[in-house]
Amino acid sequence: MAEEVILRFDEVSFEYAYKKPLLEEASFSVRRGSKITLMGQNGSGKSTMFNLIQGKIKPQKGRISITNDATIGTARQAMDRDDLDLTVEKYFAKAFSMVPGNIKSRINKVLEAVNLTMPIDRKVGEMSGGQQARLLLAYALIQDPDILLLDEPTNNLDSDGIDHLITFLVMYEKTVIVISHDADFLNCFTEGVIYLDVFTHKIEAYVGDYYTVVEEISKRIEREQMENARAEKLIQDRKEKVNFFANKGGKMRKLAKKLRDEIEEQEENIVDVRREDKTIRSFTIPEQNIKTEVVTIKSVLSFYNHLPLLKDVDVILRKKTHLLVTGPNGIGKSTFLRSLVAGKAEGATITEGVRVGYYSQDFSQLDFSQTVFDSLKSAILDDDITDQQMRSTAAGLLITGELMDHTVGSLSEGQKGLLSFARLILMRPGLLVLDEPTNHINFRHIPIIAEAINSFEGAMILVSHMPDFVKQIRIDEYLDMSKV
Q1: Which of the residue ranges 98-102, 283-287, 397-401, 407-411 has the most confident prediction, judged by mean pLDDT?
Q2: Which domains are delineated in the chain?
């Protein structure tokens, strides 16, 4: 039974009306019980693949076959804003067309599976980002699906949460397909990779753990580049000879024709080598010049076993001071940042007149109904920034002209993240408040973002579950909310 194919794409092609093709004649199969990584550059169509598998969209050509009508459960990247006001019980009830009588016991079972202790009358919006990430997985599991689709499941999880998720996936007996930028996480359980190429719109299937496949792809690119270099050198040589012999008479003209045929054959043999992701340009975030204290924190509200506890601290942030806020999922880090930015944090204040550049892990600082252009425009607080400068700033972060008329809500999660950084540049804040700023961001962009954050001359407050990212940032002050 383990060898049975549960999912098959047969020459599937798909494109959106307003975009270039995403898939062209894609073919692959997934066997029951396998653990597969869906890999590809930004914009290659990974999330679209999930929508095709779920049947939310239909291919223009080809066929998608799911064996014996296998059921599908999906853990999305982020919680839908409409679900934030629901209780945990009502949130899970949405997973069923008819709510089962034993839903409370089923909820407790899936919460235990994802290592989450939570009262079922708790509102989803009151939970931390890490707790919401576990809730998204539990929502998929309560449907007992034959195929489990996970979209960036480690976002917002602390190290304990990631370790628990890895253990769960290794032991899980059903089929799992994962989209993630976390290479170490993927390598722990992946048995194969389906690679989507953003440039050729083709799909390649590989067998092996994640690192082995990445190395195999790298070696293939190198081979293709060498073969192309040889072919291009031969083409150039033949073209020079054609130019020489074409003006000669008799047999020389026939030789020129033979060489032209050879050139055409070599040009057909040149492989369309996979190009890597475009990487964002290096950038800086200009700061508002604040000469006074920027933030004063005299107390902070933490949560222990879901109960609030206010404790005294003594933190003062000035220009060029970077604060790292740490603590496990559920301790209240994101709640503290939200309340601070909203001016509602008990015992913590931002000096009046300070511009706050807030990067929320759920992008709550963005208006999803705005166009990208209007979102960028609304971040500009100084009259000396022209539309041309605004567009240039956005383009450096891969928010290109073709996206300007799209709504913010239609962007991918990664594009929303890059848009948020473009807005911070245009805003010129005196205080940066960054809540998990690497979530959804392509790993190729992270060193550039780290450099920009590290060089920010204003005050900054950072929450991040990525130790490798934090190591790249200059930290002057620490606030461990589990010890305050």
Answers
A1: 283-287
A2: 5-71+145-214 (3.40.50.300), 295-480 (3.40.50.300)
